[in-house]
Amino acid sequence: MSTDSHVAVLKDLCRERCVLTAIPLSSPHPAAVRAVEASLDTLLVEVLDPRPSSLRAMGALSCHTLVYITSKSALILLGRVIGEPNAKRLPVRTTYTIDSAVMRAQARQAYRVPVEVSAGLEAVIRTEDDSRYGMIVHNISLGGLAGEVISAQHAELSIKDRIQVALRCGGLHILVDGEIRRKEGDIFGVLFRDSWRRGELEPPSEIREIVRIAETAWIRAKGV
Amino acid sequence: MVRKILIVDDSAMVRRNVRQALEPTDFTVMEAHDGADGLAKIDAHPDLVLVICDVNMPGMNGVEMVEALHAAGGLSVPVVMLTTDGRPALMVRAKAAGVKGWIVKPFKPAMLRAAVQRIVGAAGS
Prior knowledge:
The complex is a heterodimer of chains A (about 220) and B (about 120). By secondary structure, chain A is mostly beta strands. Chain A folds into two domains: about 1-105, Pnp Oxidase, Chain A; about 115-220, Thrombin, subunit H, CATH 2.40.10. Helices cover about 15% and strands about 45% of the residues of chain A. A six-stranded antiparallel β-barrel of chain A has the order 2-3-4-7-6-5. A six-stranded antiparallel barrel of chain A has the order 10-11-12-15-14-13. Chain A has a two-stranded antiparallel ribbon with strand order 16-17. Chain B is of the alpha/beta class and about 120 residues long. Chain B has one domain: Rossmann fold (3-Layer(aba) Sandwich), CATH 3.40.50. Chain B has five helices and five strands, in the order βαβαβαβαβα. Chain B has helices at about 10-20, 35-45, 60-70, 90-95, 110-125; strands at about 5-10, 25-30, 50-55, 80-85, 100-105. Chain B has a five-stranded parallel β-sheet, with helices on both faces. Chain B is globular. The interface between A and B is medium-sized, with 27 and 28 residues.
């Protein structure tokens, strides 16, 4: 779970006319609302199904959890009604003040596959000064890998360092931009920056294929 | 005090590049052209502070050389592999034999000097 600056998130929701679920904290009647307009800390929404039970829960200063769910993540906002809906004026709209950070619950998108030596996956870490270190990959996913750098004791590798990873496997060869996210002794966790677009996982086809090869080798090694 | 480093590589050009990278500092670089030659030089020069070794060489390759050293009682001197090879099976074998680093060619002289200084410094401390 992470928190995002809510102004940018609100503007994105409005630009894409996203439909959120407004869950009143004091009533069991959620409502579907569409994000219409955002300013610094307010969000104007259109109530899509203005039933009396829903509208009653939208009294001034009532508190709602606003949830926007995609297949990959959920955005959770806490809003307080500052403009009550008027059922007689269509479309029915209400305004929330959003005074907390937006929580983003990320669905797990990339499952780690243990890498067997038999997968033949070669990985070389390239640093910004073009130093190159061989890595024994322990596991790989569509979004990154973890592995052991034998040279860790003398290599200049720190968390948040931008690096490149040259991967070679089964006739495939790809150089991906990465970032060191974890370091425990000689073990490094690397995020593939090239696999992510605006928080969504969109790996290059070569990464998909390499993960598939690793998965196949792992299944074979386990005798499944 | 001048410290001795051994470069084991079948390529004369790589040996020369390593020599040119390290000799301006306070190292004397000795050369061996394959694993067997490397073993002989390591045996003859117990005052070596570091061995830099290629993997793919005719005759005895670099991984076989460090495995032979390991089998003979462990590595008495730090060994760093300097190679174009990144095969995980070889890296696993080299690590099990006690290799301290796996640097992938091509290398920059400054990077090699820095790595060598850190390894030799760590070994001496």
